[in-house]
Amino acid sequence: MIKYLGSKRLLIPRLLKKIDEIGGLTTAADLFSGTSRVGHALKNHGIRCVANDHNVYAHTLARCYVEADADRVRGEATKLLSELMLAPEVDGWFTENYCRQSRFFKPENGRKIEGIRTKIQALELDPALEAISLVSLMEAADRVDSTTGVQMAYLKSWAPRAHNPLELRLPSILPGPGRAMNLDVLDAAREIEADLVYLDPPYNQHSYLGNYHVWETLVRWDAPEIYGVACKRVDCRDPARKSAFNSKRKIEATMRELVATVRARHLIVSFNNEGFLGRELLESMLGARGTVSCDVVDYKRYVGAKIGVYNPSGEKVGVPTHFRNREFLFHVAVDR
Ligand SMILES: C[S@@+](CC[C@H](N)C(=O)[O-])C[C@H]1O[C@@H](n2cnc3c(N)ncnc32)[C@H](O)[C@@H]1O
Fold first, then answer.
1. N or C: which end of the chain has fewer CB within 10 A?
2. 32 CA to centre of ligand 1 in angstroms
3. 243: CA distance to ligand 1 center in Å?
4. Nearest Cα to 1, choosing from 43, 55, 47, 39?
5. Three-state SS across the chain?
6. Is position 4 within any domain?
7. CA–CA separation, 150 vs 154, rounded Å?
8. Whole-structure pTM over 0.90, yes or no?
9. Is 276 inside any structural domain?
10. Domain presence at residue 226
11. Residue from 10, 14, 15, 33 whose mutation best tests the ligand 1 pocket (most atoms within 8 A of CB)
12. How would you write the pLDDT of the chain (336 residues) with one tens digit per residue?
């Protein structure tokens, strides 16, 4: 899976343990799905899952990891990825902007990525196969990128992995049904009812669209107008695409509304101890829906934070202050 700020890879065993302790859960909705690794783990655990995210690259990950039925598409997807590896290279918009104007990938990998993406577009694939091939390409590009894990900047000198050849691999798709949605979280919360709703919102000002703008462009394939050293899409600045959860001013009221809207017997919420909302405030908000308990999980900060602070030109401008932080895992047994 792609490198992703706030990814819950390390929390998943705790989450599954909690789900087993609750018992009897057959449906779940992950309303801020990101990489979809939570939905993937829940589907693998036998829970029927819906995954939602407002960014299109994350929705594509959900279509692959939660919605696609491996029993139906695994054979065709394997064949398709072998064919895509043979796609002729293309040196166009993507290579110019992300390999020469900026340096997210080496040009030889950029041309390969662009060739494969052009071919995916031309094939007009079945939706599941399209999502699987786009995720395979996103993950292949992620393995050869030259960043610290976010696309606000690229490294001044090429990362060692950037020299590796691009290779498509079959994502670990799972058998069975699932659903992916691409809505603002409040709309998704109104539409979906499940035994369990899981909420893992952004917890500070860093926008996911800004941090992963290259994946958004790779998936949308819309050659957007771009700005700045990192060649960000102009819609990163569009108020309509900003998340209320990235705003210190708006997050509290929006979280309150979300908690009030969710339709589930159980609610699990992840929140970081360095976020805009403190533990006591969250406990009182969640207490409006039922009985709240909280586990505290201590873990390493994300890789970029360990490497240091870089400016948009890829120069190191700060050193990390600490290497560990805590994640709160709240559970609400909903009774009102
Ligand atoms: C902390 S990340 C989730 C990480 C995820 N649990 C994982 O393990 O990969 C938060 C996600 O919320 C999405 N998001 C932010 N604001 C949103 C909103 N208003 N509606 C829907 N999704 C939103 C972001 O795109 C991001 O992927």
1. C
2. 4
3. 9
4. 39
5. CCCCCCCCHHHHHHHHHHHHHHCCCCEEEECCCCCCHHHHHHHHCCCEEEEECCCHHHHHHHHHHHHCCHHHHHHHHHHHHHHHHCCCCCCCHHHHHHHHHCCCCCHHHHHHHHHHHHHHHHHCCCHHHHHHHHHHHHHHHHHCCCCCCCCCCCCCCCCHHHHCCCCCCCCCCCCCCCEEECCCHHHHHHHCEEEEEEECCCCCCCCHHHHCHHHHHHHHCCCCCEECCCCEEHHHHCHHHCCHHHCCCCHHHHHHHHHHHCEEEEEEEEEECCCCCCHHHHHHHHHCCEEEEEEEEEEECCHHHHHCEECCCCCEEECCCCCEEEEEEEEEEECC
6. no
7. 8
8. yes
9. yes
10. yes
11. 33
12. 999 998 888 899 999 999 999 999 999 999 999 999 999 999 999 999 999 999 999 999 999 999 999 999 999 999 999 999 999 999 999 999 999 999 999 999 999 999 999 999 999 999 999 999 999 999 999 999 999 999 999 999 999 999 999 999 999 999 999 999 999 999 999 999 999 999 999 999 999 999 999 999 999 999 999 999 999 999 999 999 999 999 999 999 999 999 999 999 999 999 999 999 999 999 999 999 999 999 999 877 655 555 555 566 666 666 666 667 899 999 999 999
Is 38 near ligand 1, meaning CB less than 6 Å away?
A: yes
> The domain that contains 251 carries what CATH number?
3.40.50.150
Residue owning the nearest CA to atom 27 of ligand 1: 34
Counting from 1 in the atom list of ligand 1, the atom nearest the Cα of 6 is 1
Query: Are the C-beta atoms of residues 151 and 212 closer than 8 Å to each other?
Result: yes
Which atom of ligand 1 is closest in space to residue 203's alpha carbon? 1
Write down the pLDDT at residue 305: 54
Q: Which numbered atom of ligand 1 lies nearest the CA of 1?
A: 9
Can you give the residue range of the structural domain that contains 301? 9-334
pLDDT value of position 320: 61
CA atoms within 13 Å, Cβ hemisphere of 144:
23
The answer to whether position 169 is within a domain reads: yes
Q: What integer pLDDT is reported at residue 39 of this predicted model?
A: 98
